Queue: 2 jobs
Job 1
Amino acid sequence: MLTQTISRAFSQVVLKANKNQARELGEYAIEFMKNGNPSVKVLERCKLFHTDSVFCGVSALALKTNAPTILAQEAKSLAAKTGAASKPKPGFAKVFGSNLWVPATNAIVANSAAVREWDSNGTVFGYDASSPLRRAGEFGHNDYYPVVIAAAQQNATIDGKTALKAMVLSDEIRGRLAEVFSLKTYKIDHVVHGAIASICTYGALLGATPAQIESAIGMFVAHYIPFRAIRAGHQLSDSKGASAAISTEAAIKCLQRSMNGFIGPADIFRNPEAIFRLFQKTKGDSPFDITLSLSGDDFAVMGMHFKLGLYEHQSAGALEGLQKLILDTKFVQNYSIDSVDKIKVTAYEPAFGIIGDPAKRDPHTRQSADHSMVYILGTMLRKAFTEKSFHQLLSSTNDLNAIWKALFLSPYDYSHAAVRNKDTRKLMALTEFEHGGKEYDDKYPEGIPTRVQILLKDGKNLDSQFVMFPSGHARNTQCDLSGILQNKFKQLGKIAIKDQKQQDQFYQQLNSIDTLNNKDLQTIYNCEINYASKSIDE
C-alpha cells in the first residue's frame, strides 16, 4: 500500500501508471493530512487564494447574480430547524452570509458557485517546468475551498491550521492532474480534476477510507463527466459559472454514498472505458504517473496565478501589454477614442480560439463578455480614455502597479449597461485578434504570450512588444502582487459589506485562518452582506 512507502524523509510521492491510482490518491490524501508539511510560503500562498475566492463569492451574492442567488436560496430553504451555530453539525454546513445549518452538499454548491461567478479567482494552467511529462496545460480554478470549510463545520477536530493544510491538499491533487491530463483536448470541462480533488480532501477530513475514496472517484468519473458544451455558443449561460460547483456537489454526493456502503467502479484510471484510457490509449496502464508533494515549497499552488480584477485569465497578457503602453506613452491623455484606427492583439492557442472566438465579438451577457477578448480590452481602454481621475494619476506616476489598481475591472464593468456601452463597442469594432502561430503556441502554458499594437489615425504605431508573464502570473516577480490584491479585496469588499469596520474584520479573519479554532470556522463565512436592490444583470 502507498501509505507504507511514504516517509517524512521524502518530499514527493509518485503514483505510478501501473498501479491503482484512485486508491492511492485516497491513501495519499489521508497520509498528507497526518504527516504532510508544506512550507510557510506554500501556506501563505494558499491563504491568499482562499481570501481572494471568498471576496469574489460574497460580492457576487451582494449584486444578486443569478446562479449563486438561486443556489443559496435553495440551500436556505432546506435549513435545519435546530443546531447551535457555534457547534459542528454532521451532514450540515453554512452558506456565505448566513448562520443557518443547511445540507453540506447544498452549502458547497452554493458557495462554490458564488466563488466562481465573476470568473476572477485563481487559475492554473497545468505546467511544470521541471518535467516535459507534466505540461498537459489543463485549465482550472481555485473554486473548491468551500469543500474544506463544509468539512470543518461538521468535525470539531478541524481547526484553521488543519483547514488551510487541506486547501493545499485540494490544490495539489487538482493542480497535478492538470499537468498530466488535458480534459479540454477532449472537450471535457476542466472541473473534473477539481471534483476528484474534492473527493480526496473531504474524505480525508471526515474519516473516509482509501477504498471509499476510490469508490467515490470511480462513481463520479463513471456517472458525472461534464463536457464543454456549457462554454460553447454565442451567449454563455449560468452553467458556465456554476460548472465547478455542480460537479463538486455530485462528487461529494458520491463520497457520501461510498461512505454509506455504495460501491462504485474500482481502479477508474485504468478502466479502458473511462475518460482517461478512452481518449489516451494504453495497453492497460493509466496514461500517466501522478507526482504529488508532501513537504517543502514545491506544491502545485505555487504555480497558480491570480487575476487582478474581473477578466478571463487568457487575456492577462493583453491587459498587461495595454497598460504598459498607456503608462509608457501616456497616449490616452493626448488622444481620444476617435483617434484610434486599429487595435491588434496577437496571441496563442487556446486563447485565440476561446476568448478570440468570433462568437464572442458581440457579447450580450456578462458571462459572454468576460470571455470576450475584444470586450475586456475595449473596456479597460475606454476607462483609460474617459476617466478624469485616471488621467490625474497617469500624470504623476510611472508605476505599473498603480495602473493595475486604477483600471481595476470590477463587476460593474460587466453590468447590463456596461456591456452595451457605445464607446466600448466602438473600440471593440476596431480590434483585430491574430493567432501568433508556433512562436506563441510554444510559449504556452509556460506563460501567456501576447502582443498588443495600437495604430492611431495620425500614423503612430504603439507596440507593447512580447508579453510573457503578466502581473498576477506565478512567474512574474516584478509586480506588487500583495498591494494589487489588497486593492481587489477592498473593491469587492465595498460591494459586499457596507460597513468599513466589518469589511476589515472579515478580511482579518480570512487572513488569519491558520490561527482560528473550530468554533471560529463555524462562522468564518458569516458576514452582513449588503444586497443590492436589483441584480447587476438587469
Job 2
Amino acid sequence: MMVEITRNNFEEKYPEIEGRLRSAVFVAVDTEFTGLLSDPAFKPSLFDTGSERYGKLRRSTEHFLIMQVGITAFRFIEDKNKYKFVYDGVPYLNQKEEAHLRKELSKGSLFHQLDRTVDLDDEKSIQLVCSRVAKWAASAVQGDTLDLNNLDICQGDIRLSYVMHKELRQRFPDIWSFPEGGLIRVKKISHMQRKALEENEEQHKTLEETVMHSLLGFSRLFKLLTELKKPIVGHNILLDLMIMYNQFHEQLPTRLNDFKEEIHRLFPVIYDTKFLSFQMRKILIKEDMWNSNILSHLYCFFKEGRGRYLVLYSPIIELEDGAEICNPKETASNVSEQSQDLNVKFHEAGWDSYCTGYCFIRMAHIFAHVTCGSLVFGRILTSREHLLGVSSKKNCVNVIRANISHMCLDGPDPPSDRPNWLHVQAKGFRTIDVSKVAELFARYGSVDVKPFTRFRALVAVGNHGSAKDIVRQFQKHKELRVSYYHPLWHSSVFQTFLGTGAVVSCGMCAYFLYRQFSNIQTPSARSVP
C-alpha cells in the first residue's frame, strides 16, 4: 500500500504506520531536503579523511531542512508485504526542543507562543467560532452543550485546535471545552464546576499531550524506529542519517567517533545499498554489471534487466493488494515507457525509499547465494538468510569522493585504498597555477588539486591506474615536475634543509679548493730565489 502522509492525515494513519513498522523485516528510508552542497568549503574532495568529511557534512546540515521523509516497511518471502508512504509537511521536534516544549506546557506559556503563530485566516476562524459560542451562551442554561466540527474549523491542525480550546476557555468563564473525537464540545457550567475543571490536572494533560503529539509529528516515528531496532536501509545513507539525527534527535556532535557511537546505539544495523553495489562488483562478471550504480539505474537493472535473474528463486516483491511491481513479461516498448515514468518519480522520498529497499532485497538474495553456497542451492530463501548474506557488510556506509571508500559506523574506518598523493612542482621557480594543473590532469580521471607552497601543489587521484598514467606522461614535461608525494622528502623543512645543505656543501667545496690551491702556490713561492 502506498500512502502519502501529510499534516492532515498523520494522526489518522499513525497507528497503521506503527503496525507496519513493527511487523517489518527491515525498513528503507530516504530524505529530500532543502539546500545543496554548493559552498566550496563543503565540497567533497579526494583529500578528505573520514573525520574531515564528517565535519564538512555536519556544518552543511545547518543549512538544510527536511522536506520529505520516505519510509517503506518490507515484509517478504512468506507474506511479501510492502507498505510505503511519503511524509510531507509533518512537523517534528528534536529532543532538546521537546524538553523545552514540555517545560512551556508545564508553565502554561505555550498557548501564548502558539497564539502568536496564528495567521490571519486562522484568526478569522477563531473569531467566528467565538461569536457563535457567545450567541449560544447568551440563552444556554447549565448543562447545555454545543458541538463544533473540529475538522471543519481547524482543518486537521492540532495546534490550531489547541489554541481554539484555550481561547474559548479564556474568553468565557461559564463554559468549558472538551475534545470529543472530531468535535469540540462546549458545555455551559457553574462557577464551582469551572473551578474543579481548572484544578483537574487530567483535563489539562489530555489537551496538552494531544498538542505534544502533533508537534512531535515525524519525531514520533523516528523514536519508534529507534525503539524497534529494525535494520535500516538507505542509498548513500550517511547524509540522510546525519540530517535525521540533527532534526529528529539532537544536535550533531562535533567528533565523528561520538556520532558513530550514538547512531550505532540508535540503529544497531544499517545497510547502504550504494556500498553493497560496490561490493557486488567484485563478484559479478562484466557482462552482468550495471552501467551505473546511482539509484535509478540500479533499480532499473534489478527490475527490468538481468539483475533479477542472476540467481534462482529471486523473491517476488509485490504491493499489499497483490499488484506485481515487476512484470518479467513486459515488452521492450512498455519497459521504455515505464522507464521514462520512473525518471519523473525519482527524488521523491517515498518512491526512493521503496526503490532502495527493492534493490536491497535483490542484492541480499545474490549475496546469500554466494555466502551460503550449496546450502541454499535449489530452494527459496528466508528473510533471515537474506540478512545473513549481507551481515558482514552491515554498518558500512559509502563516502563519496574521499580518501576512504566508506565509513564503519560500528568501528574504526578502513585504511585508504587510494594511490599516494602526487607532488607537482613548477620548474624554474615559477608560481604554480593550481587550476591549470587540475585541467591538465582531469583527462586522466578524477583528481583534486590543492596548493602546497607557492611553487608546488598536491594532487589526490581517484585510482592507481590514473596516478601511474599521470606520472608517466609528465616525466618530460617542460613546465611541471611530477612525482609521488613523500611526507618527509617533500616537506618544507626538509626542502629548506636541502637548500641549506647545498649552500654549505658549495661553501665547503670552495674552501677545500682554495686550500688546495694555496698549498700548490706556497712551495713555488718558496723556490723563488
